[in-house]
Amino acid sequence: xxxxxxxxxxxxxxxxxxxxxGFAGLYALHRFRSMxxxxxxxxxxxxxxxxxxxxxxxxxxxxIESMQYSYSFSDEIQQQWNWSQHYAPQPEILRYIHFVAxxxxxxxxxxxxxxxxxxxxxxxxxxxxxxxSDGRRLSSRFAVMATGCLSTARVPDRSKCRAGxxxxxx
Length: 170
Fold this sequence. Notes:
By secondary structure, the protein is α/β, with parallel strands linked by helices. The chain has helices at 23-34, 51-54, 66-69, 75-80, 90-103, and strands spanning 13-19, 39-42, 110-111, 116-122, 127-132, 137-145. It has a six-stranded mixed β-sheet, covered by helices on one side. The longest helix has 14 residues, at 90-103.
């Protein structure tokens, strides 16, 4: 099922800009919004879910018990969602994050297919300016990088490998 392209907005000034729409980014959106702040989430992918959106290989699943992977800030959400397995597979985790986003009406403040190319803090204005790869500029009092540790491939520096250790391609 194709992911909807969530609403883009002409607004460019926010209290908080969050980069990344995985578990941390969605929680940040929920939390900041509950504080009365104007929040926008910028997600480079075509859908929400972070790791669980990008990693769709056969057999992908959570390596901790599903209940521990759930949001615990809402008893209502915890009561309404039933995990089918102790260690949930990727499709179920992705369904869960969509369930939460729909339940909390988060998608209206998420901008998909938006890669952040630069983030600069203006000392004089005391504001962050984020520039997207398409040249758009957004401004905020606060910027939260919720990109996670798996958002960029890490390739080992072969020159720092131990002498005599074998590595792929040698």
